[in-house]
């Protein structure tokens, strides 16, 4: 097998990407402190046609060399907004008809692979701070909490890895690039 070249991949320009239809998914970053994690989530969101990223609280915003280091330009292709309050952001999304899914380990959570996104619905995936997770007040306002089952000695994944897994789950369930 021969590795594909950059020309084989036939990537969209930023303008072509922006004109494409997006999956009805918004990623909400609740007080993410690592700019590398923010950049990584931009890049993953670009890869899987996420509608928008909401940067909340202490989460840094572009332009930033540290975000760009891992986003590799995805901060220019993915639509984003800044909200001082994650709670206000979530309330607005719910008013707009989004089902807000908190990605967190809580009592009564639904395992990610058991959650079946519906093609007629819009979703927001909320992820939290690298140390404290999603703020409890934010958890309380969400419609459902999704948990990624783990079998090792650690009790958590890096937040950008968790978001990547969740986006992939929604992407495949909602038809991927064929939507």
Topology, please?
Elements: H1 6-9, H2 14-19, E1 23-30, H3 35-47, E2 50-56, H4 65-71, H5 74-77, E3 80-83, H6 86-95, E4 98-103, E5 110-111, E6 122-128, H7 136-141, E7 144-147, H8 159-173
Parallel strand pairs: 1-2, 1-6, 2-3, 4-6, 4-7, 5-7
Helix pairs in contact: 3-4, 3-8
Continuous helix count:
8
Q: What's the CATH H-level homologous superfamily?
A: SPOUT methyltransferase, trefoil knot domain
SS-based structural class? Answer: alpha/beta
CATH topology heading: Alpha/beta knot
The shape, in one word, is globular
Average pLDDT score: 96
Biggest β-sheet description: 7 strands, parallel
Strand content: 15-25%
List unreliable stretches of 5+ residues.
Answer: none
Element string (H = helix, E = strand): HHEHEHHEHEEEHEH
Helix content: 25-40%
Q: In which order are the strands of the major sheet placed?
A: 3-2-1-6-4-7-5
**Kindly, what is the distance between the CA atoms of the first and last residues, rounded to a whole number of angstroms?**
30 Å
The structural domain count equals 1
Radius of gyration: 16 Å
> Tally of extended strands?
7
